[in-house]
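ping. complex inputs:
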Amino acid sequence: MTSIQAKSTHSIFEPTESRISGAWSTQWVGVTNVLSAESWFYTVLDSVREYVDLNSDWDGYGSPPVHQRVVETTVSLLARFADEAARLPLPEIAPVTGGGLHLEFEVAAKGLEIEILPDTTIEILFSDGEEDIEVSGRAEWFNVPLASTWLLGESY
Amino acid sequence: MADRVDDPSVTDDTILWRRVLPDWLHKNEDGSYRPQSIAFVDRGSHELSVHISHMTTPQKALAGFPDDSLASFTAGFARSLGFKVVPDSTPVDPSHALICPSPTGKKAKKFAKESTWVVLKTAQ
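pong. complex structure:
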């Protein structure tokens, strides 16, 4: 697998900061394609909202609702992806039995799946049609620019 | 999670069904659908509920879930990935069984790729 395999999990999980961490600040507005990023972000937020108030056993398998801490972690992660919004497709977002959320990006034969677990750690699956590579770690350390670059087939 | 033992009375060629929610469907570029990998993940009980197909019907398996779909795979496939197949019949559902432990990550994705549709319900 290309750059993701070549780079260790250290680079997939390393402290990074979103340009919009904290809020959609005027500082961030100045450096990003505002309309595209805002549109992308609010569209995915709408998808997340669908799952905020699920009842217990929403799946018929006895799952608890999606945990609030999972929602917060997901929104924070999506805000960081919004930095790349002009280049990325919208992810599919779905709840996971047990109280987590799942994001799935697909670009041609490449897939990037991110599961936010109930304890807010994340498990990531990179797929390129030939092999799947999974890594796990802390959401705030996930190297979103590297993952986006890999997904889009660009050099990093 | 209980310490489960694989039950060989569920033979490798036994067809198992997993109920798939509409939110767990992925639409392919050609318009077809596949289950997302999370359709085969249970982070709550850490065991995956399935039906033993010859002990039920699609109508019974989907009773109360009219919008859901049913995906199938064999017990042998689950075992080939290292999972146990354990009958777990209940008064409500004699066909109930468990894949232990629940698949996650790339193994869940293998289930998603291997599965075939018994019933597919889409929003269209």
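The CA atoms of residues 119 and 127 of chain A lie 24 Å apart.
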